[in-house]
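Take a minute with the sequence and fold tokens given here and flag any structure token that looks odd. Thanks in advance.
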Amino acid sequence: MRRAMQQRFNFRLIARLLGMLLVILALSMALPVAVSVYYGDGSQFGLILSGIIILMVGLFLRNFVGEGTSYVLREKESVWFTAIIWIVVPLFGALPYIFTGSVGDFTDAAFESFSGFTTTGSSVLDHLDDTPQGLLVWRSTSQWVGGLGLILFVVAILHRLNEGSAKLYEAEFSGTLQRRLHPRMAKNVVLMWMVYSILTLALFLLLLFDGNNFVDSYCTAVSTVSTGGFMTNSAGLAGMSHFSMTVITLFMFLSGINLAVLFCFFSGKWRQIHGDEEFVRYVLIYAVAVVICAVSFSLSGTNPGKSVSFSLFHVASTLSTCGFYTSSPTVWPMTVSVVTFLMLFIGASAGSTGGGIKIKRLMILARYVRNYFISMIHPRAVLCVKVNKTVVVPEYVNKIFTFIFLYILFVILGAFVLTLCGIDIPNAFCMAAANIGNLGPSPVINNLGANLDYISLVPVAKWTMVLLMLAGRLEIFAIVSVLMPAYWRR
């Protein structure tokens, strides 16, 4: 029985797809190497060695292990491939940190790499000002690659998968209903990459036009659009001009929106945007949070102009789960802390690069609860949950309940492990919530009364953070599925 199951499982195809991704990863080393050579920072040798190793392994998996495979991808294989790819690729992505000597051990290198690919932004690099320019470009590039999803690289370039592309797409976005931009899956993903790339290029050119150097402009642009949050210096964005901060705030806000909505905006289909309920609520949540934060800062004695500008930036950074930070007002009102904590859990829109529970899930959950109470008063009423005038099937509503339960459970269990590692309870919960929400950087959450110091964590705590990052990025289901024996006995 077991041998028969192994024969049916298409390991050769998974090896071939994994090899293709590793080849792409190796090729993405070209820009960091070029930057390192230009600045003469000495990291080019470690980057080149990493690229060679990754390329050789990728070619071996693609051309030898995966040679002659059939392009038939079933549900189990797609879920398994999604989980394994998000583990293997970041592990190979940790090589540059090791070979350049920027971190102390493999645990720190893996932590930094997983944080990059999952667009979390947590970091164990305590001296960013002394970090080689080439490595800074690599860590930001890893966020851009992981922002839209590693799996979508495969779907975009490999048309031979046919129905398997849809299964990979569903496995990548396992927890949210996605609006398609095109009936054909490969074309749909290409359009998503096009919108994603246009946003990145536009922000990069604007930052470069404002007088920022190439490395700062590139790293900030790719980290903003991917909602990753990696920065190029320890002071965050404090040294940037008012114009740069304004466009970064705008693009953080845009990056928290569903890419399908952004595509409709760019293509002139504005009526569809007007009717998108999640987009309307995203704008409403952002506006209300900005007003509350700005008023709270002003009442605490902060200059009204600074209160408004910082609130616009802070809310965009938190709601999109980008996690950028800059110099904040001295007095941090409790009201702002509460709003920040709520936004940390709410997160961005479904179909965006942001993390968190997602607004669409909370909308569906709220409407289900409303219908439940109405049915208590009117038992014969026939009610259903609708989003954008479309009925949400009960199975998906149940999936949302399961997701939110698992999400909270992961936060609690993660915080429990961190307390066993010697971290006090407020810090443990803030760390767990920030990393599963893919927010990460500490100064945003420090204002809640916690100090998220990732550098001093013991190895067990760091690997716990890595698991939370993966759970948040993979929407939990892909991770849980491959760990359940019942899933493989189906």
